[in-house]
Amino acid sequence: MTPNEAETAVLVERLVGSVAGGEDRAVEAALRPKDLDEFIGQEKVREQLDLVLRAARARGATADHVLLSGAPGLGKTTLSMIIAAEMDAPIRITSGPAIQHAGDLAAILSSLQEGEVLFLDEIHRMSRPAEEMLYMAMEDFRVDVIVGKGPGATAIPLELPPFTLVGATTRAGLLPPPLRDRFGFTAHMEFYEPTELERVIHRSANLLDVGIEADGAAEIAGRSRGTPRIANRLLRRVRDYAQVKADGHITREIAEAALAVYEVDARGLDRLDRAVLEALLKLFGGGPVGLSTLAVAVGEERETVTEVAEPFLVREGLLARTPRGRVATPAAWAHLGLVPSGRGGPADGRDGRH
């Protein structure tokens, strides 16, 4: 299992995971904003994208290719659908892992209509032969289809109608420069502020016909890790609790009680996050400790710790990656209500970056 597969497998199971499972995708379709005015957050991206789309409409031209980068759950798929809606164009959705051969991409490109939006999620995971074909398709709106094999192979040029490619990636650094350079507009999606997430939660609660107080929305927003997808998921679980244990109306007290049942604490940490911190603090005195030893201590694979738990812990300032190993910060001791022991834990002899 690759690190990306390990991350996806675990995140889908986590309440605070940012990868969408089947239920999330169904609910997101109902909650998804339909235009830029309705889209909450990402103010700079919305302003810039609005200019790009309005200018294209004024020229009567197809919009430039768009690259959206950022963590899962921040709205990249939603923005791709808004781009299609704003341009009054159909949208075709696929993903990098689904395009493993140049022929897979050629089949998609050859069936596009003029002005159509092609949304390519996880574009960094596309195969190299398909990637090289995409260069020509984006720049010249044509591809060379190879017919036959060996010395007798023939390249047949295939003209394509003008289209807009919207690429989405969680790892922009993995995209080769020739591919990045072919996008006319590039935007990075930032994590949301709690006040923005409160607006997301109020909007979703209204669409779900759920009564919610301002303090209840604030409580959920504070535990949503800066991600609208997680905010909506927590809202649905708190709604369930409110319907079963109360009158269906969400207050701060109801939100706190519900999220305590689901083991999501005040900073948005779940069981896995706390297990990593507790092992680092209680077993190894706050570190430094190597990744392999830490993974064994929590009973997880190395990839699960480094790809799933650590990014949020590092972003929250609770854990640091150093050349000597993983080290807990003073904020981690304070969050778990522990007193620093003053001793460093044993490292496993490996470089902490591995």
UniProtKB/TrEMBL annotation:
> Which compartments does it reside in?
Cytoplasm
- Any one GO molecular function term: DNA helicase activity
> Entry's Gene3D superfamilies?
1.10.8.60, P-loop containing nucleotide triphosphate hydrolases, Winged helix-like DNA-binding domain superfamily/Winged helix DNA-binding domain
Which SUPFAM superfamilies does the protein's record reference? P-loop containing nucleoside triphosphate hydrolases, Winged helix' DNA-binding domain
Q: Which Pfam families match?
A: AAA_lid_4 (PF17864), RuvB_N (PF05496), WHD_RuvB (PF05491)
Please list the residues that bind ATP.
L31, R32, G73, K76, T77, T78, E139, D140, F141, R182, Y192, R229
Q: Organism's domain of life?
A: Bacteria
The record's EC number reads 3.6.4.-
Keyword list (alphabetical) reads: ATP-binding, Cytoplasm, DNA damage, DNA recombination, DNA repair, DNA-binding, Helicase, Hydrolase, Nucleotide-binding
On subunit structure and binding partners, the annotation says: Homohexamer. Forms an RuvA(8)-RuvB(12)-Holliday junction (HJ) complex. HJ DNA is sandwiched between 2 RuvA tetramers; dsDNA enters through RuvA and exits via RuvB. An RuvB hexamer assembles on each DNA strand where it exits the tetramer. Each RuvB hexamer is contacted by two RuvA subunits (via domain III) on 2 adjacent RuvB subunits; this complex drives branch migration. In the full resolvosome a probable DNA-RuvA(4)-RuvB(12)-RuvC(2) complex forms which resolves the HJ.
Instruction: Provide the family line.
Output: Belongs to the RuvB family.
State what protein this is by name: Holliday junction branch migration complex subunit RuvB
What species was this sequence derived from?
Streptomyces prasinus
Q: Which gene encodes it?
A: ruvB
